[in-house]
Design a protein that fits this description.
2 copies of one chain form a homodimer. Chain A is α+β, with helices and mostly antiparallel strands. The first copy, chain A, has a single domain (16-165), classed as Winged helix-like DNA-binding domain superfamily/Winged helix DNA-binding domain (Arc Repressor Mutant, subunit A). Chain A contains 6 helices and 5 strands. In chain A, the strands form 2 sheets. A 3-stranded mixed β-sheet of chain A has the order 4-3-5. A two-stranded antiparallel ribbon of chain A has the order 1-2. In chain A, a hairpin with a 5-residue loop joins strand 3 (109-113) and strand 4. The longest helix of chain A is centred in the first third of the chain and has 16 residues, at 16-31. Chain A starts with 15 loop residues before the first helix and ends with a helix. The mean pLDDT of chain A is 89. Chain A binds chain B through residues 7-8, 91-92, 109, 111, 113-114, 120, 122, 124-125, 128-131, 134-135, 138-154, 157, and chain B through 7-8, 91-92, 109, 111, 113-114, 120, 122, 124-125, 128-131, 134-135, 138-154, 157. Bound molecules: zinc ion (4 copies). Chain A binds a DNA duplex through helix 4.
DNA sequence: GCCCGTCACGTAATAACATAACACACCAAA
DNA sequence: TTTGGTGTGTTATGTTATTACGTGACGGGC
């Protein structure tokens, strides 16, 4: 198990947490949002993982860092992050992940590896999404879309292949 | 609130429950699956609603009908129904709904009205779905996809329009 | 007949996820 | 100074889901 990828590629993780937090800081400045200590720490926790964390996982770490230890502490921070585009909730997992493309308004799509638990956030082109076509033909107005696929990531497929060979 | 539509249209509900159950019966016969009393009743309960029901809602009704009253009773029945294509779980709602197109192997897409709680199951063409395109380019192998859109259904949009006029 | 494996069903207990309600601190506007 | 808003913390509770364990029904070997 290697719960490390963005997308499913290895990457230099050394600076991406700090960079993402700094960008969130700037964004909040501009938008008049308060990236308070709990909220910032929650974002860091998500960024440190690059996989989906349950609210209680986040809570445990926040609590270790001296923040409150009760569920609302985590849920409120996660709520702020998701409402403002810094994180997403993966419905299939009841878990949260840092946004891989913050700043843009976007409809994220997620690829969830059931073998190694990695989660990749893909960009989508909302205009020719399947759901929008359906919505057009039925007259439904979409406000939010959930696109999540479970399966096996390239890395785990490769490992399977290797396993098969021996 | 009119929690009645399939898709979002009114329909003759008189026979559809019985028909669907009968078809499920046939399908199970052919496939060597046991549509036992609890499972059949759970399917009926979902069909009687045409909207998403929580597992505990289903459980309550099963229990009223003399079946067990503990969570696994409902979860096991719902598990059977979803695994075999007679029902789907709506991840966004943590709730279950009878399949509107049983028999076919399909990747369902759901339109969830946040005003009236109606849920429509749309057919999708998996081959040019967004997720498959993403999967192709990233080398991810999809085993299951979740496609759910929240928004406002045609009926509720019409009502809004009417409300605005007065 | 009996032994066994499998499957469905039932229970109790608990885990995991999420929200309601209330108190206090802080800060800025009136 | 008072007042209102926002953020953080708490306790308590609600909701969703699973684990663990035991029983009865059925079918195939022996
Ligand atoms: Zn990173
Ligand atoms: Zn993987
Ligand atoms: Zn019907
Ligand atoms: Zn509606």
């Amino acid at each position: 198990m290697d719960p490390n990828p963005i997308g499913f590629q290895k990457h230099d993780h050394s600076h991406c947490v700090a960079d993402a937090v700094a960008e969130a800081d700037r964004t909040c400045q501009k938008a008049g949002l308060q990236l308070t200590p709990v909220r910032k720490r929650a974002l860091e926790i998500l960024l440190e993982e690059h996989r989906a964390l349950g609210a209680y996982d986040v809570l445990a770490r926040l609590s270790e860092d001296g923040f409150g230890s009760q569920p609302p502490v985590a849920y409120r921070a996660l709520d702020f992050l998701t409402k403002n585009g810094f994180a997403h909730k993966i419905e299939r997992l009841n878990a949260f992940i840092a946004c891989a493309h913050p700043g843009d308004i976007h409809t994220p799509a997620f690829l969830i590896c059931t073998t190694c638990d990695a989660v990749a956030e893909a960009e989508t082109d909302p205009s020719h999404s399947l759901l929008n076509q359906i919505a057009d033909t039925t007259g439904f107005r979409i406000s939010r879309a959930v696109l999540e696929a479970e399966g096996t990531c390239p890395n785990c497929l490769a490992n399977d292949g290797a396993a098969d060979k021996k």
